[in-house]
Every structure is written in C-alpha cells, then in structure tokens.
Amino acid sequence: MNVRLLMVAAALGALAPPAAARAQTERLAGRVEARTRAAVEALVDSARAAGLPGGPLVNKALEGASKGADGARIVAAVRTLSRNLARARSALGSASAEAELVAGAAALQAGVEASFLELLRAERRREPVVVSLAVMADLVANGVPPDTAAQAVLALARVGTREAELVAFRQSVERDVALGAPAGAAASLRLNEGARQAFVDQANTFAPANRTPRKP
User: With contact defined as beta carbons under 8 Å apart, do 57 and 44 qualify?
Assistant: First the structure.
C-alpha cells in the first residue's frame, strides 16, 4: 500500500458539507449502472449518517468499476469497506483522523485483528498511526501472516520506532521475500534487527555527552 496515495484518497473522502457530498457521489455517474449507483449511494448515506467518511466508499466503487467488476461485487466491496471503517473507528477511537480509519480498514481487510489496532492506538495516543497501519497491511500483502505483521509493527512502536524506520523495515522484508526468504521468517529477522537498533539509539540518546574515562 502506498502511504501517500492512501492519505490522498482519504483526503478526497473527507466528511463534507451536503453540496460537496453530492459531488462525491456524482462521480459515479456514467461509471456504474443505475442500480449499482443507487445501492452505493444508499451505503454512502448510511455511513455519513453514522459519522463515517463517504468518500472512501465512492472511491472503492470507482476502483471496482475501473477493474471491470460487476455491480454485485462492487456493492459487496463497498459494504465490506463501510463495516471495516466502523470497526476501525471502534478500535482506534472516535477522534481518529479519516486517513487513520482508512488505513485501519485496510489492515482489518488484510486479516489483522481489531485488538491489534487498539493496542497500537494505546502505544501512540498522541501520534498518527497511518503509516503503522499501512505497514501492517503491506506486510500481509507480501505474505507475512496477519498476526506476525501486527505483532512486528506493535513491537517496533513500543520501542519508539519512527515512521521512516517503519517504512524501511517494510522495504527490507519485501527485499528478503523477493530474494526467496519465507515472509514470516523475514519479518521476524528484520524485527529483531530493528528492535536492537532502536535500543542502541535510545541508549545513545540518553548517554552522557562527555564521559570521563575511569582511572585504572
């Protein structure tokens, strides 16, 4: 999952005033047949009434149309995304940003348990978790078992791993898998390396700047 594209897609689907909301659903015109469009619009209206973003649902329908999916599959995909957005909000909290809900829904769709989203939010209450969630989903897409992917990201979050380092961790796992390493083993190996480096960085951060050598 491309983190930048994820955030842009979420921004396009932000909770909007009625005129802007109508403009979002009007993007379906000519892209999906009338019956499918009506079903999608009903799901979007229900989501907005529940305080969930509607834009990502419209984007999902357009994605399905661009791939040639039939109406039933498009409506099913939009319904699933709506449910996962609700589950993500429940796990991450009602104050979560839309990009976090979209990323959380993607992680849930990948098979990550909602409990991991709750734990991640507990670890990073004052920080956005979009990248962490996207890395979870990306790892699963590369063959890492969902629980292993979630546990790895959570472990790195607990030792203060920065977003850029999380992305580097994901890229390292992807390279290992491309070279033939089992995905789960690659994630575990890179996790150990990442956690070890984080502890070293923390030790260096809190170490005295100038140490006086001990006398023999």
Answer: yes
Measuring CA to CA, which residue among 4, 7, 53, 61 is closest to residue 29? 61
- What is the distance between the alpha carbons of residues 3 and 9, in angstroms, rounded to a whole number? 10
pTM: 0.80
Tokens representing residue 7 in the block: 């955030």
* Cα Rg of the chain (Å, integer): 21
- Copy the structure tokens of residue 68: 């040639």
Pair 164, 135: CB distance under 8 Å:
no
The count of other CB atoms within 10 Å of the CB of residue 210 is: 5
Per-residue pLDDT of the chain (216 residues; tens, 9 = 90+): 555 444 445 444 444 455 556 677 788 888 899 999 999 999 999 999 999 999 999 999 999 999 999 999 999 999 999 999 999 999 999 999 999 999 999 999 999 999 999 999 999 998 999 999 999 999 999 999 999 999 999 999 999 899 999 999 999 999 999 999 999 999 999 998 866 555 445 444 444 444 444 454
